[in-house]
């Protein structure tokens, strides 16, 4: 398989929140992370919009994201 990512991702296991709309949040687990994107594990990707903000806890990191792909319980995003 040819790697198409702009920067290599590092495996991780961090808690996160997908934030969208006025005050909607969905808990997630950040499974891998790079300077340009991440893979997020969620209970269900249904209802999660294509654009949202990712809050990685307990760090103060907030990243604006766009969905690149979805599967049954994971979402691949790139940072805007």
Walk me through this protein's architecture.
This protein has 80 residues and is an all-beta fold. The protein has a single domain (10-79), classed as predicted glycosyltransferase like domains (Thrombin, subunit H). The chain has strands spanning 10-20, 24-33, 37-41, 51-57, 61-70, 74-79. It has a six-stranded antiparallel beta barrel. It is globular, with a radius of gyration of 12 Å.
Largest sheet: 6 strands, antiparallel, barrel
CATH superfamily: predicted glycosyltransferase like domains
Looking at CATH, which topology would you report? Thrombin, subunit H
Q: Report the end-to-end length measured between terminal Cα atoms.
A: 25 Å
Low-confidence stretches: none
**What is the name of the CATH class?**
Mainly Beta
Give the structural class: mainly beta
The portion of residues forming beta strands comes to over 45%
Number of helices: 0
CATH architecture group name: Beta Barrel
How many domains make up the coordinates? 1
Q: How many beta-strand elements?
A: 6
Helix-strand topology string: EEEEEE
Main-sheet strand order equals 1-2-3-6-5-4
**Bulk shape:** globular
Radius of gyration: 12 Å
Summed over residues and divided by their number, the pLDDT gives a mean of 91
Helicity level, as a percent range? under 10%
